Structure prediction request, 118 residues.
Amino acid sequence: MLDSYLPIITLIVIALGFSIGSIIFSRLIGEKKPSAVKLSPYECGMPPVGSARERFSVKFYIIAMLFIVFDIEVVFMYPWAVMFKRLGLFGFAEMGVFILILLVGYVYVWKKGALEWE
Prediction:
């Protein structure tokens, strides 16, 4: 029974050895010359403006959550599309109900103004 797990254990040992070895190797031979330029935050080649502790609007988080919810729901359509012919009319009707529920949720969110970026 251990033979079936041997490739997985080998892969885990190699991955851990490589990651730990890379960290140790870079610490040993890497240059250590800190300066103000090297320690400053880098973002798209532009000098940083403002504080990194700036608060984001709640709208940002709401739109991000809505994107994740609708994105995950769309993932459920892939297995349905793969099995479309075998599911027949019943599968088509069930997916129609699923899409209708998603559409109702989307219209509700839209009418509430959650997608407005002000």
Summary: The CA atoms of residues 16 and 116 lie 46 Å apart. The radius of gyration is 25 Å. The chain has two domains: 1-31, 55-118.
